[in-house]
Amino acid sequence: IDGIFEETVPILEKIIDAGFEAYFVGGSVRDHLLNHEVNDVDIATSALPYEVKKIFNRTVDVGIEHGTVLVLYNNESYEITTFRTESTYKDFRRPDSVTFVRSLREDLRRRDFTMNAIAVDTKGHIFDPYQGMKDLKAGIIRAVGNPHERFQEDALRMMRAVRFAAQLNFEIEEETQISIAENASLLQNIAVERIQIEFEKLLISSWRSKGLQAMIDSQLFKYCPELEDKKEALYSLISDQISFENAESAWAFLLYNIDRYSSNQVFSPIHFLKKWKLSNKMIQNTLTLYQGLKKRAENQELNTWEIFNLGIEAALDVESLLAHLDQVPKHDQVNHIYENLPIHKKEELALTGYDLMKKTTKKPGKWMSEALDTALKAVVNGDVQNEKEAILQWLDTENKIPYIKD
Ligand code: ATP
Ligand code: MG
């Protein structure tokens, strides 16, 4: 017991002093045993939610119907979940109601994989009824109990299996993998948002090839949004060994490959991303990278105006993506162009709509925003100084504003 676990021991001891059991469980135990960084610990207890709330002064009901109470203690917050089983599964999804139990073993049995079903007490003693330690050491993802039953209870677990394979460079145990292949179609019952979270984690993992290969071998990809006939695009993400710097880059590269392999049909990137229910912001950022990548991949450089619009981070992300196509990124050149931009934000333009209004007799209207856009582009491209009078004069000579009063 050390690090974040050691710091959290007092919380567990308070629960134990009140007459209940408390353990570290789940992903935090797994990651700690793998020597990976752990940021949040999962705590499981025999105390019922209302009993947990009685023990601590400050708590928040974050998921009380699932048995989770957030405890605020010494400026930190801790999620504490009551031992539970998930007995009533409907429609191959997580149950909407849970049954609280007083036994740790029962709680561990409802967990997905043996490596996620290990508990540790305050002394560091390990409780491992499903031999998770052995699988963890061997790098094996194995369903707890009968894989068919487990995937039929909750089909999302199949996506979690391939995601863990990609994150941890683990092998999916044979029975478990066979069972994923047999139950793959049940993924259709799962909310897209939840599939998306797992798929995105897979895409940005160091061993995404492993996860994607498992998705193809089991046909799981066919039950993901818009991927049914996109096997070639997925293969191109398998053969490429470079990791993505962020999720937007991963999605953008996926779009690029889908576009490449859908030679006959029209492919709509925005439709694809919407089907995956990505947030609007994520869709915007991804499309921007995708368009930048498309242009750069055709060996066209991004011009000053494009780099200004992308912003430095996205422009550099586009360059990084070129490496996935065996093309040479030009980060230095992009940095150089960006540093030499006369202005870096729209707001820095030395002309406002108010300035324009003062200068003309024409009623305010669409012409104003058009004039401001033209001015912005001219300033960014260095056609005119970023100075109010200079811009107005330039707009006048270019006939971009109706009439300038003196
Ligand atoms: P991550 O590193 O993504 O947080 P995790 O394993 O911690 O991975 P969580 O969603 O945080 O995943 O869940 C915590 C624990 O709850 C898991 O380790 C597992 O024991 C259990 N769990 C989570 N989702 C499921 C599920 N769909 N079916 C069964 N058990 C689950
Ligand atoms: Mg977790």
Describe, in plain words, how this protein is organized in 3D:
By secondary structure, the protein is of the alpha+beta class. Among the domains are: 130 residues, Beta Polymerase, domain 2 (2-Layer Sandwich), CATH 3.30.460; 50 residues, Serum Albumin, Chain A, Domain 1, CATH 1.10.246. It is 50% helix and 10% strand. The protein has 20 helices and 11 strands. The longest helix is centred in the C-terminal third of the chain and has 18 residues. The protein is elongated and about 85 Å long. The termini are far apart. 38% of the residues are buried. It binds adenosine-5'-triphosphate and magnesium ion. The site of adenosine-5'-triphosphate has 9 residues, from helix 2 and helix 7.
Secondary structure: elements and pairs:
Blueprint: H1 3-17, E1 22-25, H2 26-33, E2 42-45, H3 49-55, E3 58-63, E4 68-73, E5 76-82, E6 84-85, E7 99-100, H4 104-109, E8 119-120, E9 126-127, H5 132-138, E10 140-141, H6 147-153, H7 156-168, E11 171-172, H8 174-183, H9 192-203, H10 208-217, H11 231-239, H12 247-261, H13 269-275, H14 280-297, H15 304-310, H16 312-322, H17 331-339, H18 353-359, H19 366-380, H20 388-397
Parallel strand pairs: 2-5, 10-11
Antiparallel strand pairs: 1-2, 3-4, 4-5, 6-7, 8-9
Helix pairs in contact: 6-8, 7-9, 7-10, 10-11, 11-12, 12-14, 14-16, 16-17
The chain binds adenosine-5'-triphosphate and magnesium ion.
The gist of it:
The chain is of the alpha+beta class. 50% of the residues lie in helices and 10% in strands. It contains 20 helices and 11 strands.
